[in-house]
């Protein structure tokens, strides 16, 4: 979520591209976890759930609604996003939730604190993601679950093939690598969980498609990208990572606008999903 | 299915790599179509369904079980596979089914014959796939459905990264292109349906992941690939298309065997799915 702040949003207020991130809920982003969450809730209504890299807290808030007698904790490395997450939860009338700043590499919690420890689009952005997963396993109770969903950007299918979108894809992959992450995260998620100390028999692995096909979905995606391209968010990140910025950001924004208008337009990518039974 | 015959299988008997194709059913390959099929069946128990490119008929046969008072027709361009499809249906005790040879570009049926016209992994292999879809629309009744599911091979995620598998991916993509198809089929499926004359409002588009992650799934995939690599199926196709065969087929087969044994191994790809309401 650091790019949200880099583009000048005030804490507690929706950042310019918030729609793209804030449409995310447990239902649309953690569907694979929900059957397990519901069965765990049947034997324990007071589940404790940790959302690692919670950002503006829309997923955390929807988790809190699903476990009204439980407790959700959202944590994000970016302190500036925490007030926005609190505002999202307050607006939703959710009280069984708290947010705090912290790093996935040093979670400020005792061993075996949570029944469910969750992250989404976090490991894709960091170096040594297995250390993050090891830390998530540490704070999870025995009999609990670590659940992660990470995209594989190299799997992304986009149509039509517009030069501005091809350039954009290269820019984004470069930013992921420069930031220590990888555009081939999804396919490695299982291997990272094994490297974190989980055994294969503890891990359920699946994939789902995340797509933007309807006019409304295409508009949300296109607007989010254009706001980052024209507002300087992506340029600031590139400069921060010391990348030489050759791309024409306005050309990329126009390509996203054209894409959103085309009736033959589609975008989809694979997301890997693991449930690790501790 | 032509590669099945190229490797020397006898009509009516399982071809060597049959397991890989013959695990396919309506339930695992046409899940997105089944809710629509069930609702159509409620108002008409006598649905007529056409399976275009039916191959060895396992999907056709499971469709026939789902509409016991309806009628399934399977058609394949390869006459040699038809006896095998009949044997599969007979073994399953299914009688409301028939198979015949024919081309998707000239379907031997009157206009508006079928309630549901289906294909899977057919358009990916042919030039001018919009002509095939136009023909599928022609033989479908008004108020009926054309349904297609086509993979996007370029989206495929494989881990670990073994050199033999990278070489294999290049070989397969080359074979698809040489045969007139494309390894980027899935992302183009919507555009092909539009080019076939459907309007955007008639088309529902989605994507699903097809994955091989469990030991059993990995074994089935690996054995299917090894049989084609060692049995000459892929080599015969390459030579048929006039491709220069430089690859070491045995090295690729060994890579598949190693992949099947690795506990960190995974493979997934996006498949596009359309329902066109005629």
Fold and architecture overview:
Chains A, B: It holds the Pfam family Methyltransf_31. Chains A, B: Residues 1-21 are annotated as: Disordered. With 278 residues, chain A is of the alpha/beta class. Chain A has one domain: Vaccinia Virus protein VP39 (Rossmann fold, 3-Layer(aba) Sandwich). Helix content of chain A is 41%, strand content 23%. Chain A is built from 12 helices and 7 strands. Chain A has helices spanning 2-6, 18-22, 26-29, 34-43, 58-66, 82-91, 129-138, 163-178, 189-195, 215-231, 233-240, 249-261; strands spanning 48-52, 71-76, 97-101, 114-120, 140-159, 203-212, 266-277. A 7-stranded mixed beta sheet of chain A has the order 3-2-1-4-5-7-6, with helices on both faces. In chain A, strand 2 (71-76), helix 6 and strand 3 form a beta-alpha-beta unit. In chain A, helix 7 packs across helix 9, helix 8 (163-178) crosses helix 12 and helix 10 (215-231) runs antiparallel to helix 12 (249-261). The longest helix of chain A has 17 residues, at 215-231. Chains A and B meet through strand 5, helix 9, strand 6 and strand 7 of A and strand 5, helix 9, strand 6 and strand 7 of B.
């Amino acid at each position: 979520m650091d790019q949200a702040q880099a583009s000048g949003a005030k804490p507690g207020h929706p950042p310019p591209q918030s729609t793209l991130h804030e449409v995310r809920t447990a239902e649309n982003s953690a569907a694979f976890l929900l059957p397990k969450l519901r069965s765990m809730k049947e034997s324990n209504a007071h589940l404790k759930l940790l959302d690692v890299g919670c950002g503006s807290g829309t997923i955390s808030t929807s988790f809190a609604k699903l476990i009204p007698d439980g407790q959700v904790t959202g944590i994000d490395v970016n302190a500036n996003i925490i007030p926005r997450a609190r505002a999202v939860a307050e607006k939703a009338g959710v009280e069984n939730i708290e947010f705090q700043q912290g790093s996935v590499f040093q979670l400020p919690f005792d061993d075996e604190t949570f029944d469910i420890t969750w992250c989404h689009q976090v490991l894709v952005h960091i170096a040594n993601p297995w250390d993050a997963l090891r830390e998530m396993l540490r704070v999870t109770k025995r009999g609990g679950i670590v659940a992660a969903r990470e995209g594989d950007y190299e799997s992304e299918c986009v149509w039509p093939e517009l030069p501005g979108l091809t350039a954009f894809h290269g820019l984004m992959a470069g930013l992921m690598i420069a930031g220590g992450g990888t555009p081939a995260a999804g396919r490695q998620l299982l291997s990272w969980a094994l490297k974190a100390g989980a055994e294969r028999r503890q891990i359920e692995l699946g994939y789902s498609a995340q797509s933007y096909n309807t006019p409304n979905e295409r508009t949300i995606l296109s607007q989010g990208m254009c706001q980052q391209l024209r507002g300087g968010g992506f340029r600031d990140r590139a400069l921060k990572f010391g990348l030489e910025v050759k791309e024409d950001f306005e050309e990329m924004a126009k390509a996203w606008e054209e894409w959103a208008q085309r009736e033959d337009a589609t975008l989809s990518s694979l997301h890997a999903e693991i449930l690790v039974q501790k």
